[in-house]
């Protein structure tokens, strides 16, 4: 099984939800809304990766021949026939359009022969089930993919048998993806992108990749230009199922020279590997299973390791971001200093525009609590476009709501109302049902000292 984690690695603000509200987004709550219509993204604008082919080859090998657990995979596995996909279960209304858009991108950008079918013999079955059903099987998973099954009931019966062991596969013929049907449209889409990519291609995640869904920081949630290039290489005719690590490594220079000529003359950076101790510290700091003191200790350890490794990249930044998240409810000033450090390291690292947009939500929220409307507007302005380009409606709506409060602080009330109204359509896609959207509006409005 390969799962997308529910660990809150990139939460927005405090992610406040009233305890009295239900924890599900029902179909009625979307259909009967009195809020402005839900908005969604109509066009993808992925940026091409700006990496050397030497670095891309190393990334490809580490993504393709290892699991997140560290277990090595002996051979490359992929589908060797055109890929067919079907949807079963009670699919939310947003799943069909999002799946069509994703498959269109896979055909045009990754050059993969993929199509939808209603046949039970489909290569990939996407089953829409409740979050509760998923968590009964994998408590920490928001969604997951498993080989050689086509339903959650079937997976339950064989989950500990060899047929669902990724390391024993020789090629891929039948897989199932399990998505929540009672989550926000964005969460369903994010699961779809990551799990379909890993159903077809690499199974590993690497923290060192700043511009990829193949990264446990969960910053990127739709397939990037980097991801599409990796998938295109994965299905290049020069590769096939059963090839060893050495055989794939020998073929990659020719493949990458052909599909990514711009990477031939770029200098290699050879980013250092990420120690498992750092990954564990980050997961612990941002988890919820231990005490506040234990989370602080873990965040300090992540910063210590990042410093000792000499990192100046997005991983050093993310360690400070994690510490900010841990301290936010107990020491706002210290949290703010770590968010500033995170932004400084992100600013010096390539491919981190979306990361900085997340940090901007925290920095601008802090400015709003201090009544500094102009400062909040300055912090927010550069990041609206990044959230749009990366199709992150939750982030976009949060930035717009923060902008609305900042405009109120500087007495631009009519503009504030217009921006707030614009944010709600995006919030409906990003956060889901009306109660979640209204909770987000209340949460951000509560930052404004004029409304306390």
Verbal overview:
The radius of gyration is 22 Å and the shape is globular. Helix 3 links the parallel strand 2 and strand 3 (114-116). 49% of the residues lie in helices and 7% in strands. The protein is an alpha/beta fold and 452 residues long. The chain has a 6-stranded mixed sheet with strand order 1-5-6-4-2-3. The model is unreliable at 6-31 (pLDDT under 50). It has helices at residues 27-31, 53-64, 95-108, 131-137, 152-158, 185-200, 225-234, 245-259, 276-285, 292-308, 314-327, 332-347, 353-369, 373-380, 384-389, 393-409, 413-431, 434-445; strands at residues 2-5, 83-89, 114-116, 124-129, 141-147, 175-180. It has 2 domains: 2-21 and 49-263, 3-Layer(aba) Sandwich (Collagenase (Catalytic Domain)), CATH 3.40.390; 277-451, Alpha Horseshoe (Serine Threonine Protein Phosphatase 5, Tetratricopeptide repeat).
């Amino acid at each position: 099984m390969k799962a997308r984690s529910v660990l809150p690695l990139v939460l927005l603000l405090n992610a406040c939800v009233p305890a009295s509200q239900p924890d599900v987004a029902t179909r009625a709550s979307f259909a009967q809304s009195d809020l402005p219509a839900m908005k969604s993204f109509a066009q993808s604008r992925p940026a091409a990766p700006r990496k050397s082919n030497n670095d891309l080859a190393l990334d490809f090998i580490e993504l393709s021949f290892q699991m997140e657990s560290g277990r090595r995979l002996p051979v490359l596995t992929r589908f060797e026939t055109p890929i067919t996909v079907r949807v079963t279960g009670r699919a939310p209304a947003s799943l069909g359009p999002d799946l069509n858009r994703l498959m269109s991108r896979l055909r045009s950008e990754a050059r993969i022969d993929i199509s939808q079918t209603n046949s039970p013999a489909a290569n990939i079955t996407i089953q829409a089930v409740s979050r509760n059903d998923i968590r009964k099987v994998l408590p920490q998973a928001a969604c997951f993919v498993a080989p050689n099954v086509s339903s959650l009931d079937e997976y339950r019966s064989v989950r500990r048998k060899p047929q669902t062991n990724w390391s024993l596969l020789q090629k891929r013929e039948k897989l199932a993806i399990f998505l929540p049907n009672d989550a926000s449209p964005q969460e369903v889409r994010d699961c779809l992108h990551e799990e379909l990519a890993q159903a077809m291609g690499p199974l590993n995640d690497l923290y060192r990749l700043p511009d990829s869904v193949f990264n446990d920081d969960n910053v990127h949630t739709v397939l990037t230009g980097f991801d599409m290039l990796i998938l295109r290489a994965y299905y290049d005719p020069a590769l096939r199922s059963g090839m060893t690590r050495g055989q794939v490594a020998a073929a990659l220079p020719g493949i990458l020279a052909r599909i990514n000529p711009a990477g031939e003359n770029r200098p290699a950076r050879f980013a250092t590997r990420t120690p498992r101790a750092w990954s564990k510290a980050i997961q612990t700091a941002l988890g919820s299973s231990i005490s506040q003191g234990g989370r602080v200790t873990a965040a300090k350890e992540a910063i210590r390791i990042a410093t000792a490794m000499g990192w100046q990249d997005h991983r050093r930044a993310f360690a400070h971001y994690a510490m900010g998240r841990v301290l936010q409810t107990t020491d706002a000033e210290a949290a703010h200093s770590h968010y500033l450090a995170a932004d400084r390291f992100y600013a010096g690292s390539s491919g981190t525009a979306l990361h900085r947009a997340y940090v901007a939500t925290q920095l601008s929220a802090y400015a709003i609590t201090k009544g500094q409307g102009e400062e909040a507007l300055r912090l927010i302005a550069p990041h609206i476009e990044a959230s749009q380009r990366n199709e992150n409606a939750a982030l976009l709506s949060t930035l717009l709501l923060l902008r609305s409060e900042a405009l109120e602080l500087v007495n631009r009330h009519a503009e504030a109302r217009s921006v707030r109204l614009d944010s709600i359509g995006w919030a409906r896609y990003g956060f889901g049902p009306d109660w979640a959207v209204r909770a987000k509006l209340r949460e951000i409005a509560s930052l404004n000292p004029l409304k306390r």
